[in-house]
Amino acid sequence: MLAYVFLSNDFLRFFTEDRSIRGWEDTATSWLITGLVVAVVCAGVMLFYKLFQKRSAGNIKEQTWSRGETILLMLAGLIPVFICILVVWYATSNFYKVIGMPGLFKGIVFAWLLYLLFMVIGHLASPWRRELI
């Protein structure tokens, strides 16, 4: 059901600028999948970075992160998501032509929301949940 909502025609139209090009639905679907992949990869890298920092800490006090440090890590991860989405959009001619500038910004916000969702899920599913709540 959720997949149908994401791949429904109206949802795909939201991300596209030029729907006169044949196969625009495939391009819009690829754009959403790109946002999903970038969000998952960036969230994984940021969680791995946090794990590495916690493991390399000398004592228990350095291993404990405050809520502010955790939120700062999450916000810092928005920058690589933005850069990756921008590079993929610019490097792929289909995205550049079909998605357009408004679709780029909508895709960036979509990837940011997915990234933040995966970061929260990653923290809640790990022993770090107390650093977030």
Fold and architecture overview:
With 133 residues, the protein is mainly α. The chain has a domain at 43-133. It is 81% helix and 0% strand. The protein is built from eight helices and no strands. The protein is elongated and about 60 Å long. The mean pLDDT is 86.
Give the amount of beta strand, in percent. under 5%
In DSSP terms (H or I, runs of 4 or more residues), the helix count works out at: 8
Rough shape?
elongated
Into which percent range does the helicity of residues fall? over 70%
Task: Give the overall pLDDT as a whole number.
Answer: 86
DSSP strand tally: 0
Uncertain segments of ≥5 residues (pLDDT<50)?
none
Gyration radius over CA: 18 Å
Span between termini: 31 Å
Order of helices and strands: HHHHHHHH
User: Which structural class matches the secondary elements?
Assistant: mainly alpha
Q: Tell me the major beta sheet.
A: none
What is the strand and helix layout of this fold?
Layout: H1 2-6, H2 9-15, H3 24-55, H4 60-63, H5 67-76, H6 78-91, H7 93-124, H8 129-132
Task: Sum up the structure in keywords.
133 residues; elongated
Quick recap of the structure?
The chain is mainly α and 133 residues long.
